[in-house]
Write a structure and sequence with these properties.
Blueprint lengths: L1 H10 L3 E7 H13 L6 E5 L2 E5 L1 H7 L1 H9 L8 E4 L6 H13 L9 H9 L3 H28 L25 E9 L7 E6 L2 E12 L11 E10 L6 E11 L7 E5 L1 E4 L6 E7 L10 E12 L4 E7 L2 H10 L6 E5 L2 E6 L1 H7 L1 H7 L8 E5 L5 H13 L8 H10 L3 H11 L4 H11 L9 H4 L1 H11 L1
Parallel strand pairs: 2-4, 15-17
Antiparallel strand pairs: 1-14, 2-3, 5-13, 6-7, 7-8, 8-12, 9-10, 9-13, 11-12, 15-16
Length: about 475
């Protein structure tokens, strides 16, 4: 997975792993077929017609937005876009899928797809296509050289096809987080957050020093750092920690990274608090006062449809910014009598069956209004719509109210996320963790260091 991420980043840093509700993509894509009565654009290619929506296209491409602004709309007559570049229907479908979901549905090694991406200024898609085409060119040249050097007579009857490795595969349910940590001798016993998840610290590291037995009396002799890694609150965010590995360079490794599996101090499969330890490969000395360590935390997502996925980073913001800027919006949102914002009917109908049922009763040519009770508050309603648009929860504030909205409007993934965030940790289980984590008498850990773990427990319970 790490190598795949590096390869994508070389193509475009705007295509990366993002936490997202899978249903947000699936439902929006399904709207092309299900919400046909809301479609106001038609793509025509080789006598095949694909319906689409102006608000979606305009949010993702300024070229589409400019084109729609120039043409005066005709009631009940969709705007037609004819693709004359020689593209196949499958290419146009792949293009639309990237527009609607931020990810491709077919091969990226398609010159016609590249032309569409460049024409409509979808830079991330264009860069991904260029990378895929370059990979195929390189493989074709390698095959060609092999054929020429072996049996030239076979070349004319052989097909040069891309290998399966040209496509990008990943397992969306088992994310691995890589966290860097600069381990400094001067920070002995000081805890440091190595990763935040939804603005909350869930992975924390610190180290303690153990001097070599024969050198206990000498102040300046080398000491061995023992690394401690704690996982807290991960279960609230739907993450089950499987294993933790630490990587570092050791003496005699010639610059290569060595990876060690950290041993759990107290590890139950569904524990609220996990603690791992491992002895470093390098010693502290006058000449070596710091070195870099990497942690790989292998996890499993336990919330259905809420995972890290590779996607166009702009997908999570383009639609939302179109709503904020009131571009092609057709629904007004009120809390009480206060107008909060304007949004897009197609997104609301795609994401919530309740909103779809109410908005479908209103003709598509008129602007609709949706009212929320004042008890929910403006901020909560904005967070709710932000999740509908982006598929990601940006804050853990007001999860009780968000849970109510998710239940009322049948937004299943948000409901499941809020249920976990609202879950009260088992205090008895946390106490058992602390008992198991008490340092043995022979281990020279400063008493102040061990205060770190209880503070995390209090942090979990209080929040």
């Amino acid at each position: 997975m790490i190598s795949e991420m590096k390869e994508i980043y070389r193509a475009d840093p705007g295509y990366s792993y993002q936490l997202c509700d899978r249903l947000a993509k699936d439902q929006l894509w399904a709207a092309l077929m299900i919400q046909k009565h809301l479609a106001d654009v038609e793509f025509v290619v080789n006598y095949k017609i694909f319906p689409a929506h102006k608000s979606i296209l305009a949010a993702r491409s300024q070229v589409f937005a400019d084109e729609f602004e120039k043409v005066q709309p005709v009631n009940d007559v969709p705007h037609q876009i004819r693709i004359e570049t020689g593209a196949d229907p499958s290419t146009v479908l792949n293009f639309l899928h990237f527009v609607y979901t931020g990810e491709p549905i077919g091969t990226l090694a398609d010159e016609e797809l590249l032309k569409l991406a460049e024409h409509y200024q979808l830079l991330t898609l264009a860069n991904l296509c260029k990378l895929a085409l370059e990979k195929i060119d390189a493989m074709q040249m390698a095959v060609l050289r092999k054929r020429l050097n072996s049996n030239p007579g076979e070349l004319s009857s052989s097909k040069i096809m891309p290998e399966e490795e040209t496509e990008i595969f990943f397992d969306r349910t088992t994310p691995t987080f890589r966290c860097p940590w600069l381990l400094k001798k001067s920070e002995n016993g000081q805890s440091k957050s190595v990763m935040q998840y939804l603005n909350e610290k869930i992975f924390i590291a610190y180290f303690t020093e153990v001097k070599e037995i024969e050198s206990q009396s000498k102040q300046d002799d080398p000491s061995i750092p023992v690394m401690h890694f704690t996982c807290a609150k991960h279960r609230r965010f739907g993450l089950k920690v499987e294993d933790v590995y630490c990587g570092m360079q050791g003496s005699g490794t010639r610059g290569y990274m060595l990876w060690l599996k950290m041993e759990p101090k107290y590890h139950q499969e569904n524990a609220e608090l996990l603690h791992f330890t491992e002895q470093a490969l390098l010693d502290f000395s006058k000449a070596n006062l710091q070195f870099r360590v990497y942690f790989d935390i292998k996890t499993v997502s336990t919330i259905g449809n809420y995972n890290y996925e590779m996607m166009d980073d702009k997908w999570t913001t383009d639609f939302w910014m179109a709503a904020i800027n009131q571009k092609w919006t057709d629904v007004e949102i009120f809390v009480g009598t206060f107008k909060v914002m304007e949004v897009h009917r197609i997104i609301l109908c795609a994401r919530s069956p309740v909103l779809n049922a109410s908005l479908s009763k209103i003709s598509s040519g008129t602007k609709s209004e949706v009212y929320f009770q004042e008890d929910f508050g403006v901020g909560v309603v904005q967070h709710f719509f932000n999740f509908l648009y982006t598929g990601s929860l940006k804050s853990t504030d007001s999860v009780h109210q968000l849970s109510k909205l998710a239940t009322i409007y049948q937004v299943e993934t948000l409901k499941n996320v809020c249920q976990l965030l609202n879950r009260v940790p088992d205090v008895e289980e946390l106490s058992d963790c602390l008992i198991q984590l008490e340092p043995p008498d022979e281990l020279p850990i400063n008493s102040a260091v061990f205060q770190i773990i209880p503070s995390f427990v209090n942090y979990v319970i209080m929040t």
